[in-house]
Structure formats: structure tokens, C-alpha cells
Amino acid sequence: MANDVWVVVEHEGGQPKKISLELLGRAGQLAHALGGRTVALVPGKNVSAVARALGPYGADSVYTVEDPLLEPYTADAQTHVVGEALRREQPTLVLIGSTAQGRDYAPRVAGRLGTAIVTDCASLEVEDGSLVATRPMYTRKAIGTVRFAPKGIRIAVVLPAVYPVPQADPKRTAEVRTMHVPLAAKQIRTKVREVQAIQRETVPLTEADVIVSGGRGLRGPENFALLDALAKALGAAVGSSRPPVDSGWVPHDYEIGQTGKTVSPQVYLACGISGAPQHLAGMSGSKHIVAINKDPNAPIFQLADLGIVGDLFEILPKLTEAVRQAKGGNRD
Amino acid sequence: MLNIIVCVKQVPDTEAPIRIKPDGSGIDEMGLNLVMNYYDEHATEAGLRLKEQFGGTVTLIAAGPERTKEALRTGLAMGADEAMLITGPGLESADHLGTAWVLAAAIKTVPHDLVFCGKLSTDDNAGIVGPALAELLGLPQATAIAHLEIDASATTALVHREVEGGVEVLEVPLPSLLTVERSLNEPRYPSLPGIMKAKRKEIKMLTLADLKVDISADGAGTRSRLIKLVPPPKRQAGRVIEADADKAVAEIVAFLKNEAKVL
Fold first, then answer.
1. A238 and A182 within one domain
2. Is the omega angle on the peptide bond into residue A72 within 30 degrees of 0, that is, cis?
3. Do A75 and B182 touch (CB under 8 A)?
4. Rounded to an integer, what distance in angstroms lies between the CA atom of residue B29 and that of residue A138?
5. Which domain holds residue B142?
6. Choosing among B25, B149, B164, B184, which should be mutated to test the A contact, i.e. which has the most A CBs within 10 A?
7. Does the CB of A137 have a partner CB in chain B at under 8 Å?
8. With contacts defined as CB-CB under 8 Å, which chain A residues touch B256?
């Protein structure tokens, strides 16, 4: 329907991903402002459990499109199904998470339908009846405000962790409907040979509320174990600045910064990171920044809420222990 | 023999600061060092390596103002064979989809087995043109690839791309469009003879009229518009303290509990 706000839901293991819940919360507010309903679209194989989970987070209505060909994810299948659903129902706004999937297929859907698309949205507002987004540009040296075309479907690809997951209301349910979108195997031109899971005990960077990140000051790959231990105690993710990646201490998917990931967690704990502009481009949107560095002149201290000039090799093990105790204490 | 296309954009050098115009309409380009988009260097390198392996040609294509020639010359100096620049009236109002339309119109006029793009450009940070271009050309795609092998018969690309919590291993049949992550390769520096040769190479100039595309018809290609650019909010530096391990731990734990409220 014309004023509806949609969220294309990403899911894993029968659960909606955190980003999709964040988007549902924001979609509800925007649908209210635009006078439409909040609608979730769930493409996948067996998605009834995912679909049922969405009502409590704000979906008024849920469309499922079920086809074994939708898993594993491919750009061809997803573009076809999402594109067709949007073409039929013509929502005014579609929110898609800025994830490896969302960034892959959303522009393709826009290309197919000829719709407006804005990526990396850090906010979405209705201002004087028009829809505007803000987004980091020029490697976060500037924030741009972008206005969407007034008519037609608008696609916003939204950064993770800019909107909170709404409080679930268990009494709320959404009407779940099946949408039939024919999909043939020959439409999927790429073949997923495998998805190699990277086994880590810590949470993914882009979903984490807390990130513990290491730089050149860690001096070697073996010392990332200090970060792993602290991250495990905090329930945090582990990231890095560019030098540890370039030195081969950690894989590229750790990298936060201009040539890596952009993150905005509740807390960013920078350990042995000097704060080069290239790194700040990826993390300066964090809500709280704590920095540990032995150099009192490190640029990271200019934006840290709490800066510790000290020896991270002494501090980190003790901090891990203190966090374990604090967490243990909370449980009692 | 592979016909390889690499899409190129010219952007401000990310190492340098930018100046935002007082009216917030964009950035001031006076004295700004403009270079080939960082990821496009990796895309060019990917194309050149395949040319070395399979033979063929590497053609650079850009849509942008006249000054974009300099970025194309960087790619020619790295070893690309030809370069094409689409410029002229109508282009300045194009959004990312509009740019993809223009590039698609140009690429359709030349044979292409593989089209490479950077995964994003470091000015707009949008990442739209690559996948949108794949769609408009009707090609299969893989985005932000970190590994690439082409089979001996040059029919299939095997790529890796980073996804949350893993690595996706994909087979993509040729012709296809691939966007490139920085970990794919290390771009070569242009050689001195390469630079000299690139200076003499002709850059083929095209206009939207030559390609018969009108991106502003029906508002298409102009459906998103930058209306304001501001500096990011300045973060206030907080407290910086010199501390031994015990004091540091006490400070950090107190901060995590009382201010960040994550403990």
C-alpha cells in the first residue's frame, strides 16, 4: 500500500537478525509519521518462526516468500523476490540493513525498479513531508543530508546500531501472509560453493554493543588473545585498526576504518591504537570511546571520553578479571 | 582473451582534509588533490593481472567532469590499454543510479567478459553503482570480493567475499561484474615508461547525447539529491589520566558501569 513502510528481514537459524529488529523499530515510527503500516518481508526457506517473531517488535503485517532456492542467499534470487514483492505492493519506503547481503542486493533491486536508493543511512526522518537521510561521506569527514524523490518506492539501506532494538511486546501479533513469487533455478546464475564459518567465540563486529579493538601497540598477533579474553568477559566483539591487518596479525574482516568496517557501538575500547584519520573514519560514530595508549599525545585521546595513559599489557588482564567479577556480581 | 572493463572514479585524496563550502552545498575543490578512487586501483590491478594471465585488453571507463582524465591516466600508466570518459551536460545532476545508467550505456557498446568496479568510492561511500550496473547490464555479480580465480577456460570466476561471521565462496559465470575489496590485491605503482606512454594515449570522449541516454527524463537518475554537507559533530575530548594498572581498571570499570551502562 502506498504509505506503508517495509523492512526486508535478514535472518539466521530461525531468528531475525538484530539489524532487522532495529529497522522494524524505526519503520514503526516512520510509518506512523507517513500514515501507513509497518510491513515485514521475509524471504527464505522455512521462515514461519522468523515471521511469528516480528509482531512483538512492531510489524503490523508480515509477508513470507518461501522457496528452497532462497537459501543460501544469492543476489539473483533475492533481487528477483524482493523486486517482485515491491513491484506488486508499492510501499513508500523500504528499509534494508547495511550488511554483506543488503549492500549486495539493494542497489540491484533499485536498478531493476528504477527507484531512489540511499545507502549507509545513519538517520531517516520525515521533514516537511519529505523523506531525508543523513549519511557519513568523504570517509566520515563530512555528514551529508540526502533528500529522496517525493514519489515512488524509496529504498534506504541503514547502518547497523543507529537505532535501538525496540522493546518486545509479547502480546502484539502480526498477520502473516504468504506471497507466491515464482523462482526458477536457472534464474540463479551464481553458485554458492560454501560459506566458510569463521569460528570465533566473540560476537560479529557490526552487531556488537561493545567492541574491543587493538592496534600496532599490541606488538604481535599472540597478544590479540588479551583482547579475546576481555571481549569474551564483556560479551564484546574484537576488531583492529589497519596496521595489525597489514602485518598479518589478524584477518581483514577485523579491520575498522576507512578501508574496513564502519561501526557505532555503545562502547569502543581502543587498545594501543594511535587514532590515525583512516581508523577514526570507521569508529568515531561510537557512543562512548575508551582509549588505552602509552603515548599521551596519541590523537585517539582527542576524542576518547575516557583516556588512559598506561601499559595495556598490565591493564588488560586485570580489566578482564574485574569485568568477570562485575558480571558475576550482577548475576547474584 | 578477455575483454576487461574497469570503472573508475576520481575522488579527493583521502589522506588530505576536505573543506566544506560555506553554504554546505558540497566541498571546495580549490587546491584539492584529486586521485583515482582507492578501490578502483585495486579493480584496475585485478583487471591487469587477468590480462597478463589470459591475454586481452583492459579498458577504463569513467563518467564525470573533464578533470577525471587524470584518474584515467593513472590507470593507463598502471598498464590499462584504453580509456573512455563520458562527460558533458546532464551528468552533474545524476545520482548513483543515473551514473550506473550512463556507464551501462557505454559498456554496452564494447565487448565485455568482466566488468570490475571498486566496492565503493571514498567520496560518496555509497557502493550503489557496482550492483546497479550489474543489473542494468544483465550480468551476474559478486560484490566486495577478497579473492579471485578464473578457471583455465575463462568461463567461471571463483570468488571469496567476506560476510558477517564467515567467507562466502561463490562461482560466478562469465560475463559478470565484480566489485573489489582492498584485500584482493596490492595495486602496482605506475612505471616511469608507463607514465610516459599514458600521457600520449588518447582518451575517448563521449557525451550523454552520443550514448543516447537522458538520465533526467521522468526524474529517473535524479531520485536522490544531496542537499547539505556539514562537518561531523566534534567529539569533546574527555578525561585523560595517567594511571597504573589498578587505577586504570577501576576507572574503566566505573565508566562502563556508570556512563556507558554496559556492566
1. no
2. yes
3. no
4. 13
5. 2-219
6. B164
7. yes
8. 234, 267, 290, 323, 326
pLDDT of A110 higher than 50? yes
Q: What is the pLDDT of residues A69-106, one digit of tens each?
A: 999 999 999 999 999 999 999 999 999 999 999 999 99
| pTM, rounded to two decimals | 0.93
Q: What does the pLDDT look like over A23-55, one tens digit per residue?
A: 999 999 999 999 999 999 999 999 999 999 999
How many domains does the structure of chain B reveal? 1
Closest-CA residue to A43 (of A14, A4, A70, A19): A70
Q: How many domains would you assign to chain A?
A: 2
CATH number at residue A267: 3.40.50.1220
Is there a domain that residue A43 lies in? Answer: yes
Domain membership flag for residue B237 = no
Residue A71 falls inside a structural domain: yes
Residue A12: DSSP 8-state? E
pLDDT at residue number B222:
81
pLDDT of residue A331 exceeding 50: no
Nearest CA in chain A to B157: A190
Query: Which of A128, A137, A284 should be substituted to probe chain B, the one whose Cβ sees the most B Cβ atoms within 10 Å?
Result: A137
Q: Quick check: A71 contacting B, CB < 8 Å?
A: no
Answer whether residue B180 is part of any domain.
yes
Closest CA in chain B for residue A318: B249
> C-alpha grid cell for residue B196?
610516459
Domain of residue A17, residue span: 5-187
Does A101 share its domain with A148?
A: yes
Q: Is the backbone of residue B62 left (phi > 0), alpha (psi -120 to 50) or beta?
A: beta
Searching chain B, which residue's CA lies closest to the CA of residue A211? B262
Report the Cα–Cα distance between both ends of chain A, in Å, rounded: 50
Joined together, the cell numbers standing for residue B130 give 557496482
Rounded (5°) CA angle A136-A95-A52: 140
Chain A CB contacts of B231 below 8 Å: 141-143
pLDDT at A329: 62
Q: Is residue A199 part of a domain?
A: no
